[in-house]
Design goal:
By secondary structure, this protein is mostly helical. Helix content is about 95%, strand content about 0%. The protein starts with 6 loop residues before the first helix and ends with a helix.
Length: about 100
């Protein structure tokens, strides 16, 4: 008696093994793709957070520029007030000296 498998069983066994191999590769590929998708989503979330932070920093920079401008204007105004007060004090000294 021969222990060899009939040709149709070998072909069926090879087809089944091939199908099983393809399914396993597909499962592995799906796992890799899901991991890549999750990484891409995390990267997207980080990028969105960075964009929001940059927007906030841009607004803060604009506000800081406005405040610098205001400080400059106030210093100029203070200098003018000081000069006017000095001028008034000088005039008061002249009046009280007479």
């Amino acid at each position: 008696m021969s222990t060899a498998k009939p040709k149709s069983e070998l072909v069926e066994s090879d087809s089944l093994a091939s199908l099983e191999d393809r399914i396993l590769r597909t499962v592995d590929l799906m796992s890799e793709l899901r991991a890549e998708r999750d990484a891409a989503l995390a990267e997207l979330a980080a990028a969105r957070a960075a964009i929001e932070e940059l927007g906030a920093l841009k607004e803060a920079a604009a506000e800081a520029q406005e405040l610098r401008q205001e400080v400059t204007e106030l210093r100029t105004e203070r200098k003018q007030v000081r000069l006017r007060i000095e001028k008034l004090l000088t005039q008061m000294d002249l009046v009280s000296g007479q």
